[in-house]
Amino acid sequence: MRVPRIYTSADLAAGESHTLDAAAAQHVAKVLRMQPGQVLVLFNGDGLDYPATISHVGKKEVIAALGPAQQNELESPLKSVLGQVISRGDRMDYAIQKSVEMGVTTIAPLVSERCEVRLKGDREEKRLRHWQGVAIAAAEQCGRALIPTIAPVMTLDEWLDYSENCDLKLVLHHRTEKALTELSRPDQLALLVGPEGGLSEDEIAQAERAGFLPAAMGPRVLRTETAPVAALALCQWLWGDGGYGSDYTF
């Protein structure tokens, strides 16, 4: 049986007892139906795993005894920053969830000329909290102990400045013949993905002037939520821990 992983924002230390927050306690007690003596792993985003044994399960409270912290080895050596133009419905959730599974480090929600979603004030703050929750849940599922950051909503100009120090910057669109295998291995990668209607010609040109290279994920046009997943998977295979050039093989 797979050991459940539970995120907490609290400080964790070996030998201490930790009371799960209400949502985590409900998940452990009501959904997973775990009992005292069973084990789980807690993590708080510091890069460590904290194996724990449940010591108490009540109607509203679950307490776990923490064992020695363990180094989590699942972070990719490739640091990747994703600039994803906001999309409607659950497409943005999908892009964030799968990008976390693919090892992304930071996700910046963007607005562009053809972006159909405009967020302001409380609505923007609510969506950012929701997206951070999606990232946390994805990290729980895939075994990561670092939580990718959801950056504030940015314009394209702000994103280009934000990603300036990345040593390889790619703007995804299907009008290029440049192969990823022709590029040098980066330490930090920036990916720019447009909305459903794609980035405009002016926006692509603007990104290229800022040092972004055009890159395609094959001959077919990908959906906005598919493109970052495909790109990150290929980049992890080439330069990260996905297979090619790494210790991991299929």
Concise synopsis of the structure shown:
The protein has 250 residues and is α/β, with parallel strands linked by helices. It has helices at residues 22-31, 91-101, 121-142, 156-162, 201-209, 227-239, and strands at residues 5-7, 17-19, 39-43, 48-57, 62-66, 70-71, 79-85, 106-111, 149-150, 154-155, 168-172, 188-193, 213-215.
Structural key phrases:
250 residues; Ribosomal Protein L25, Chain P; 24% strand; Alpha/beta knot; elongated; alpha/beta; 7-stranded parallel β-sheet
Describe this structure in words.
This protein folds into two domains: 5-71, Hypothetical PUA domain-like, domain 1 (Ribosomal Protein L25, Chain P); 79-239, SPOUT methyltransferase, trefoil knot domain (Alpha/beta knot), CATH 3.40.1280.10. 29% of the residues lie in helices and 24% in strands. The chain is built from six helices and 13 strands. The strands form two sheets. Strands 7, 8, 9, 10, 11, 12 and 13 form a seven-stranded parallel beta sheet that branches. Strand 8 (106-111), helix 3 and strand 9 form a beta-alpha-beta unit. The two termini are 23 Å apart.
